[in-house]
Write a structure and sequence with these properties.
heterodimer; A: 388 residues; mainly alpha; 3-stranded antiparallel β-sheet; B: 512 residues; transport (chain A); phosphatidylinositol binding (chain A)
Chain lengths: 388, 512
């Protein structure tokens, strides 16, 4: 049952800007256990806020608890004008598990060494998925804790503190309704948002931008995923090449032997580098895109809510007196929403740009580092072979 | 894609050959004897022999003979008439520099010793000059001729050489694929049965060619043509680097002659066909009732090594093939990603970030090209090398089988001789003088055959040994050269990668 080291976690926490800066409420996930499909996160809180019973405490939480928290926040009307941080995606071990299965089937066709190496690669992949899911859950909580309004949410505090099993609280009938109506609402929202006449320039711009950007970034995420996967395949192939070259070299007893040995060795070294390149790319680029696809969706949700509010505000113009009062309320709601919405969207923009910058810079630096490593390995090998 | 052939390995030997060639052309004598087979063959270096047997035709210079390159002109002897396909049938097109004159028959028993006795036409020993003779061959300019299903590709085969046996120093001819197959067929007919490793030409490909014929101008047919062109070039390089084969007039004709008669039987015979034949022969050998008693384990061990190696190379080839495909996938996915990134960059409203994303798209575009080139290198430098050697090893296996067949023939002759002796004995006892003479004649005939076949066997043993050593040396060099070349291609690729990302970095840092 793998656990995570602190440093790796800090290294991983790159898709969002440095959260967890406010000492009054510090949250992290120092530990997690993987039992079959279920991941149990240990949510650790350190706080100076009096609203909590203790200054430091930890609770075990499951992925479903996070989803509950997210959905509750989304449903809270007061927060309609806020961008609710996107819910962390479900831990998905499907890919490494499938590959592990295939590996098991193909075991007979490989040498023992080859099999061991492939297995190591897969275990690393599995671990990477695990680390990513921890990170993504952690970031979710940290976004909440650093938000001036959301950090004060009662449900959030319950989530952090309640030391019993949350699933009791979770099982509210309302849940199902919201979950299923969500998808239905989505398509309705799309229609609404594109149809609604915008009153505000800012929102008009935002709407156009977010709609367009959202499609594009989703597309980029998929394409990046495919690219990274193909890269991993190439790195894996190097393992097989190295293994067979090794067996050929073992039977060779001419001057060629040395060459084959070095060649096999080179492939082995290179595949490690290529593997790192692929996983760094995954982390810095693909993960970045993935995260912001979700975040953009959250921003879009804000726009939907606003559009619905506007719609409501406009609708109630049939009956007079009572309606007028109603309408005034709706308008008010709408305006508040719009104001907070504007703030949120602006800060969201800033966050996004900073995150992209950080990740793109880091990715470029890593690519250069790995390539330089490859270059020196190759140069060394070629030199040796030429003098052989 | 570099066209230069690998450095010509045996240039000194070439030059010595050509010396001999010069010597021969002025010579009317039938020098083609049964070359004191053993003496010359057991030595590792042909040319150490040269001094000792001046005037004796180098065993490797088998130009005149269509069949067994090393044989003497035994057609005159009836005893051997049925033993080999005779020259008269296929020499019509050969216009080698050396004209064959096969007038003087030589009795079998003399021929064996003739190597030492043929001092009569000894020429003053040619000085082996220290100049290296050059021979460069390139296969270029694939051109489609004709239309529709009758269309075919023609390649330009250019030769640049200082070898005197050619009519000029630089020349080129146009050849089509079936011409190459025809050359292979001729060479293998003549030399394979003597234990020589005859290089195999590239495979026929109905699918590949159909696309080309039909006129599909897509990347897969250009790739196919390039793959074939490169394979044909490598094939020729291998042929001419084999000193025996280079001396074969068919090879010279192939390189020099303007028009070659269309090779028709290649309909059936190709590299793959040949390999099938080899495998059938192996099966036949395995089914032999009398197993050879190897006095020397060398052959058995070597054959085992060869078979193992063939298997391993096949596996490696399959894996490298997968690598090529995965890299092509990566290439495609990168291109798609680059486009997507460009679109995202356009969509982005922050100016600096928008620029950076567009730059990223450009970097990924360049990466796509890198991957494309690397995939091509994976293929041409690595995968094709392995494919060539898998085929060649099949050819090596064939030598071994030919040796066993030769042994078998000797054994069969011995048992036939035994039977004939028994017949004679019976006749003696039955006292039938008329039939007795015939029996005696037959015994004489078979005794000669037994001697001949035994000599053949010894000779093929020596040839196979030599060939295997030569092959191993060539393979070793080939692999060494290609390994380095491949690693260098990876190196260049990585160095370019560094440049691209270093150019991108400031753009990324400029985001604000």
């Amino acid at each position: 049952m793998p656990t995570i080291s602190q440093e790796y976690k800090t290294a991983l926490r790159s898709v969002s800007v440095d959260l967890n800066n406010d000492v009054s409420l510090l949250i992290d996930i120092p530990d997690a256990l993987c039992e079959r499909d279920k991941v149990k996160f240990t949510v650790h809180t350190k706080t100076t806020l009096s609203v909590f019973q203790k200054p430091e405490f930890s609770v075990p939480r499951q992925h479903e608890d996070f989803i509950w928290l997210h959905d509750t926040l989304v449903e809270t009307e007061e927060y309609a004008g806020l961008i609710i941080p996107p819910a962390p995606p479900k831990p998905d071990f499907e890919s490494p598990r499938e590959k592990m299965h295939k590996l098991g089937e193909g075991e007979a066709t490989m040498t023992k060494e080859e099999y061991t190496k492939m297995k190591q690669e897969l275990e690393a992949e599995y671990l990477a998925v695990f680390k990513k899911t921890v990170q993504v859950h952690e970031v979710f909580l940290q976004r909440l804790s650093s938000h001036p309004v959301l950090s004060k949410d009662r449900n959030f505090q319950i989530f952090l503190e309640y030391d019993q099993d949350l699933s009791v609280r979770r099982k509210m009938p309302r849940r199902c309704l919201v979950v299923s109506s969500r998808t239905w609402l989505k398509s309705a929202d799309e229609v609404l948002i594109s149809g609604v006449k915008e009153v505000d320039d800012f929102f008009e711009q935002e709407k156009t931008f977010l709609l367009d950007y959202s499609t594009k970034i989703k597309d980029s995420t998929t394409k990046a995923e495919r690219m990274t996967r193909a890269h991993k395949n190439v790195a894996d192939d190097y393992i097989h090449v190295a293994a067979i070259l090794n067996s050929i070299s073992a039977e060779e007893n001419t001057a060629l032997k040395k060459h084959l040995d070095k060649f096999s060795d080179m492939f082995e070294k290179l595949r490690k580098v290529e593997g790192r390149v692929a996983s760094d790319q995954e982390l810095k680029l693909t993960e970045l895109l993935r995260y912001y696809t979700r975040d953009i969706q959250a921003a879009k949700d804000l726009l939907y809510r606003r559009a619905r509010a506007l719609d409501k505000a406009r609708l109630k113009s049939k009956d007079v007196a009572q309606a007028e009062d109603n309408q005034r309320q709706c308008m008010q709601k709408f305006e508040k929403l719009s104001e907070s919405g504007k703030k949120e969207l602006t800060s969201f923009k800033g966050r996004r740009v900073v995150a992209f910058r950080k990740n793109l810079v880091e990715m470029a630096e890593l690519e250069i580092k790995h390539a330089k490593n490859s270059v020196s390995l190759l140069q060394g090998c070629i030199e040796t072979l030429k003098n052989c | 894609m570099e066209r230069k052939p690998p450095p010509f390995p045996d240039s000194e030997e070439q030059e010595a050959h050509s010396e001999k060639a010069e010597e021969e052309s002025g010579d009317d004598d039938d020098d083609d004897d049964d070359d004191g087979g053993e003496d010359i063959f057991t030595g590792n270096d042909l040319f150490s022999e040269e001094g000792s047997y001046p005037g004796v035709q180098e065993p490797s210079v088998d130009n005149q003979h269509a069949s067994n390159g090393l044989r003497s002109d035994d057609d005159e002897q009836d005893l051997f008439a049925e033993a080999r396909v005779e020259l008269s049938l296929d020499r019509s097109s050969t216009k080698g520099i050396r004209e064959v004159t096969r007038s003087s028959p030589s009795a079998p028993d003399i021929s064996y010793k003739s190597s030492t006795s043929k001092m009569s036409f000894e020429k003053p020993e040619e000085e082996e000059s220290n100049d290296k003779f050059e021979l460069n061959i390139a296969v270029t300019h694939p051109e489609k001729v004709g239309d529709g299903m009758n269309a075919y590709m023609v390649y330009k085969v250019s030769t640049q050489t200082t070898l005197p046996m050619f009519k000029s120093r630089a020349f080129s001819v146009r050849r089509r694929f079936s011409d190459f197959l025809g050359l292979f067929e001729k060479l293998s007919e003549k030399h394979a049965q003597n234990g020589y490793i005859v290089p195999l030409p590239p495979e026929k490909s109905v699918v590949g060619m159909t696309k080309v014929k039909v006129g599909k101008e897509d990347t897969s047919s250009t790739e196919f043509v390039e793959k074939r062109r490169a394979a044909l070039e490598r094939y020729l390089h291998r042929v001419v680097s084999h000193q025996n084969l280079l001396q074969d007039p068919d090879v010279r004709e192939f390189l020099e002659k303007d028009e070659l008669p269309r090779a028709v039987s290649t309909q059936t015979l190709s590299g793959a066909g040949f390999l099938k034949m080899i495998n059938k022969a192996s099966d036949a050998v395995n089914k032999m009732t009398i197993k050879m008693n190897e006095s020397d384990n060398w052959f058995e061990e070597k054959l085992q090594e060869v078979e193992n190696e063939e298997q391993q190379l096949r596996k490696l080839h399959a894996v490298v093939d997968a690598l090529v495909n995965h890299r092509k996938d990566l290439c495609g996915n990168t291109a798609v990603f680059a486009k997507s990134m460009a679109m995202l960059g356009n969509s982005e409203d922050n100016t600096a970030l928008s620029r950076a994303l567009s730059q990223l798209a450009e970097v990924e575009d360049k990466m796509e090209q890198l991957h494309q080139e690397q995939a091509s290198n994976d293929f041409f430098i690595f995968a094709e090398l392995l494919a060539d050697y898998v085929r060649l090893l099949g050819g090596v296996r064939n030598c071994f089988d030919q040796r066993i067949k030769t042994w078998q023939r000797w054994q069969d002759a011995q048992s036939t001789l035994q039977k004939k002796r028994e017949v004679e004995a019976k006749l003696l006892w039955a006292n039938k003088p008329d039939k007795l003479q015939q029996a005696k004649d037959e015994i004489t005939e078979w005794e000669a055959k037994v001697t001949q076949y035994e000599r053949d066997f010894e000779r093929i043993c020596a040839t196979v040994r030599k060939e295997v050593l030569r092959f191993e040396k060539e393979k070793s060099n080939d692999f060494k050269v290609h390994i380095i070349k491949y690693l260098e291609s990876l190196l260049v690729s990585q160095q370019r990668l560094i440049k691209y990302w270093e150019a991108f970095l400031p753009e990324a840092k400029a985001i604000s």
